[in-house]
Amino acid sequence: MSSLLERIAICSWSLQPDNAEALFNQVRSAEIPRVQLALDPLRLNPRGWDRFLERCRDNEIEIVSGMFVTEGEDYSSLESIRRTGGIAPHATWETNLKNIRANAEIAAALGLKLVTFHAGFMPHDPSDPDFEILIGRVREVADVFAANGIEIALETGQEEAETLRHFLKELGRAAVGVNFDPANMLLYDKGDPIAALRVLSPWLKQCHIKDAKKTRQPGTWGEEVPVGTGEVDWPSFFDTLSEVGFTGYCAIEREAGEERPKDIRTAWEFVAPLVGGGGAVIRSTSPVRVGIVGTGFVAATHIKAYQRLEGAKIVGLCNPSGRNLDGDFSNVTGNIGSSDPVRLDMAGVEAYRDFERMLANPSIDLVDVCSPTSSHVAQTIAALQAGKHVLCEKPIARSAEQARTMVKAASESASFFMPGMCLRFWPEWAWLKRTVAENRYGKVLAARFRRVAEPPWWGQANYLYGKHSGGALFDLHIHDTDFVQYCFGKPLSVFSSGYSKFSGAIDHLVTQYTIPGGGLIHAEGGWAMTPGFGFSMAYTVNFERATADYDITRTEAPLRLFEEGQAPRDVRCGSDDAFFLELKSFLDSIRCGKASSTVTPEDGVVTLEICEAEEESVQSGRPVSL
Description:
By secondary structure, the chain is of the alpha/beta class. The chain folds into 3 domains: about 5-275, Alpha-Beta Barrel (TIM Barrel), CATH 3.20.20; about 290-420, NAD(P)-binding Rossmann-like Domain (Rossmann fold), CATH 3.40.50; about 425-625, 2-Layer Sandwich (Dihydrodipicolinate Reductase, domain 2), CATH 3.30.360. The chain contains 22 helices and 25 strands. The strands form 4 sheets. It has a 9-stranded mixed β-sheet. Strands 1-2-3-4-5-6-7-10 form an 8-stranded parallel beta barrel. A 6-stranded parallel β-sheet has the order 13-12-11-14-15-16, sandwiched between helices. Strand 5 (about 150-155), helix 7 and strand 6 form a beta-alpha-beta unit. Helix 14 packs parallel to helix 15. The longest helix is centred in the C-terminal third of the chain and has 20 residues, at about 600-620.
């Protein structure tokens, strides 16, 4: 079972999107890739939500459940919602039933397993005729959804927990449960949320994360407030969920306020440390303080990303040569990303020529190793032993044997260590990984990866000294080698051909990978192109029922999909760059005390083992088994 942190979603209606594209943009901005989806907008405006499930997959957004509202609801006062809310009112029942049937078909098409709604105010007295009427209506709604393999959950708050418990027992349907909203218990003044959660736990299917303060004037609403500022006892809430063995999703809901996206992000940052588990946790209210060693192209690229991350603060910069320690990286160039000059405001940033002095700074939480490959092993191990978290750029070492010493040091440390394999976070490549894993278009029949460039004229003393850098094989082609094993598993063997042109190591090669399960997989990589060629990366993957083609030079629409029976289309995967997403992922790991599952230290070793096999194959002219 995944951790609760990985089962937190956003209520789509809290973001108030006008259409699917607006929702995708807002979810990407909130950086929580799961939603509980309001179904009524899809029913009322199908054009604005066309091909919604497919587009969710393209945007790597999971729909965890659905929700519908009912006709004629009036939330202007407690009395008005009592009269008009849910499926209880007789005047709107037929219209509601018609809409419910349509929503059930939408939910089924989306593959949902749970849909939630407010049933309306329940009579406290079971002898009240309206009690039996409401039971009958809920059963009818349950039957509509059950016919499509979907369970339903009644949202709490408009009645006391004991009333809802009695109602559910009389209802007698295992497929009908509770969507528990602790804030509603306060807004409607229906009892203590934690006590109510315990009463209703046998029927618990989903929860909302929302906060509120009780009213001080009986008969009026309480006040909904940002999560963490109200009267919900959140530590007890999550402890109780753990005690009762809750395995469902929690969806952050915000129905008031003028800054809902910001409040949703605040809720996530408040909740994450409470549910993230053990490990070295840094409270989300404090930034992760970063020390960067190395001041070349990769460091400049990381600085750009850190400058966009609210939860990061650069406090140290180290380079033994002293180059760029003034924070001016405007003379630093590379093969990817924008050419905008990078300047780091050095106020509050310590500059070091001595790496050990930087490690002695107790304010540094994370060391970002952007130095030449030959420095990685010693700097990473020293930083881990100093109690720092470490992100180390690829290749993490020149050999797999060296990398194993780094992994051993990480295993003996309480800190996290992540190899910097940015391609796993590249939106279009992450899309490919997910598409392969889901078997969305059938088996992969063939895949071609290509990453070629002119020589790296920046940092020549390091890159073009192959004994230390490993040449293009270890520094450039390694991205595709890593991605092949990320998508298809560790190859059974490799067969490579290549040559040296500049570095004394392998500067251009083509590799065919024999992978578990078959499929013709090969990759070309190198930096031996004539100056002026620039940089190119691409892939073409042929599935049983589709072909995906990515080319970075198609700047407006780099990823195209050709699917059987469909017109060719561009796949939009978001605008965030891979370095931003990579660093954000590692910062989230540090805050939540949960190591990254996207890139593990062991992945860094395996990738180097494959590269070494490719190197051996080039030199021997024969296939090499792994």
